[in-house]
Amino acid sequence: MWLTIYKTINLDNKVALITGSSDGIGAATALLFSSLGAKVAIVGRDQSKLDKVAAECESKSPHHYKPVVIKADFIRDEDVVRTFEETISVYKTLDILVNNCGLSSKKGFGEPEALADYDRVQQINVRSAVRLTELAAPHLKETKGAIVNVSSVAGVRPNARGWSYCMSKAALDMFTKCMAGKLAPHVRVNTVSPGGTRTNFFSAHPDPDAFLSMVAQSVPLKRIGEPIDIANLIAFLASDAARNMTGSIVLSDTGMLVADPYAK
Question: Which positions carry the signal peptide feature in this UniProt record (predicted)?
Fold first, then answer.
């Protein structure tokens, strides 16, 4: 399953830092990268989840590489810096940075504490990616590496309730484009923009399964994305198979943006 479409993709012995990798898209990416021979550093806030992912990564690795496991909360700048320093301390180099860490907004515009929530969303969804990119760039230039930012269809599809989340993803998309120009020709920078994907992102919803089923019926492909769908695309963009791509915002949204609002 993991290697079906990757006969031409080689991540063997590449070093990858993958944020937000204790579950969901980040965990699927860490598992896929490990199965393709990469050495990974995984990051998240839940130690038990991280330990589980680390064990699965080691079992899937053809070399039985043990991931570097970093418990961190990117609401704190010092945790962002520590994450990078611990990765480099162990591996001494870096080939791939996957900025996947993110969270949703909870406060509607004008609600009490909406601005505090906005600051929290921007810190984790945007500033952490900016800071890690700043730290990683010199190492990635040496290895001719790649950055993949995980954004969202929300970056181009407005949602008034999720206004600060939408803004954060639009900012991340533009950051990708700016850095693609800045870091070329040494480092490629691309974005993956998922649509509805079956992760814990929707766990706060009263009935996540019913909500995701409703979303599936509203999109042309009539399905919800799975974390591996996004991980597949991240692996492609991180590899030399995508050597001709930089500054791209690649959708994997089950057709959400082309859905016909008048279709019955």
Answer: none
